[in-house]
Amino acid sequence: MNTPITLLTLSHQYGSGGSLIARDLGQRLNWKVWDKEIVQTIAAQQHVSEDYVDTKDERVGSIMERVVETFGVGGFERAYNIPPRLRLKDSQLARLTRQLIENAAQDGSVVIVGRGGNCILAPRPKTLHVFVFATLDARKKRVMQVEGLTHDETEQRISGMDKLRTDYVRKFYQADWRDSDCYNLQLDSGVWGEDGAADMIMQALEHHAG
Questions:
Q1: Is residue 79 very low, low, confident or very high in pLDDT (cuts 50, 70, 90)?
Q2: Could you please report the per-residue DSSP string of 102-137?
Q3: Under a CB-based contact definition with an 8 Å cutoff, are residues 142 and 124 in contact?
Q4: 72-107 burial: b if 16+ Cβ within 10 Å, else e
Q5: Domain CATH code at residue 179
Q6: pLDDT (tens digit per residue) in 169-188
Q7: How far out from the chain centre does Cα 63 lie?
Q8: pLDDT at 90
Q9: Which residues, at least 6 apart from 176, have a Cβ–Cβ distance to it below 8 Å?
Q10: Which is nearest to 14 in space by CA: 201, 202, 140, 125?
Q11: How do residues 28-66 score in pLDDT, each as one tens digit?
Q12: CA angle 188, 176, 153 (to 5 degrees)
């Protein structure tokens, strides 16, 4: 008999719909989803605004500066807000994030979205690690529709976010977040759609519960 899965990490490319898929799974499973809840909890703990934490979520300050240099200050600022100087250091925020994820995993029945969750919980049993991706064209189309950005702004946003997430995981977990060896299941949401991707993840969870 397979061991039932009690934890799910869902990493995703920006524009692939991963956050919505995670929400869908949380509702189907009646599991708590930790995504923006991480930002909200840290903001409350540190007595700062959610916007303050959100500007540094899943990113590294020095990397942000290099992205700005690459795309030009005006273009990237319009595509994504450049954070002000913060009281929380990148390493402090990463440590707080890791602690929240580890604490959430203690009780099980949770979906952890991004933020190196697959790296943090890699040693834990009864955990399914999923990566949701899509072609660049599919991601561009979705971001333009959902966020109302221009074509150029969309390209800058996607490129910038991919780089920020890559460097965040590399710096704090010495891993490549797009490495297939880090996941048990990878899904193309551009092919399966958000509902279809959620269906397939449910099947994977049910397989391990049989």
A1: very low
A2: HHHHHH--EEEESTTHHHHTTT-SSEEEEEEE--HH
A3: no
A4: eeebbebbbeebeeeebebeebbebbbebbeebbee
A5: 3.40.50.300
A6: 999 999 999 999 999 999 99
A7: 17
A8: 84
A9: 166, 169, 170, 182
A10: 140
A11: 999 999 999 999 999 898 888 888 788 777 777 544 444
A12: 60
Rg of the chain (C-alpha set): 17
Asked if residue 126 is part of any domain, the answer here is yes
Distance (Å, whole) CA 99 – CA 172: 13
* Full residue range of the structural domain in which residue 179 is found: 7-196
pTM over 0.90: no
- 8 A C-beta contact, residue 53 and residue 96: no
Cβ(18)–Cβ(11) below 8 Å: yes
| 207 — pLDDT class (breaks 50, 70, 90) | confident
- Tokens coding 149: 């950005």
Q: How many domains does the chain have?
A: 1
Give the length of the chain. 210
Secondary structure letter of residue 17 according to DSSP? -
Quote the CA–CA distance of 207 and 17 in Å, as a whole number: 24
Tokens standing for residue 37: 């809840």
Instruction: Report if residue 45 sits inside a domain.
Output: yes
The answer to whether position 201 is within a domain reads: no
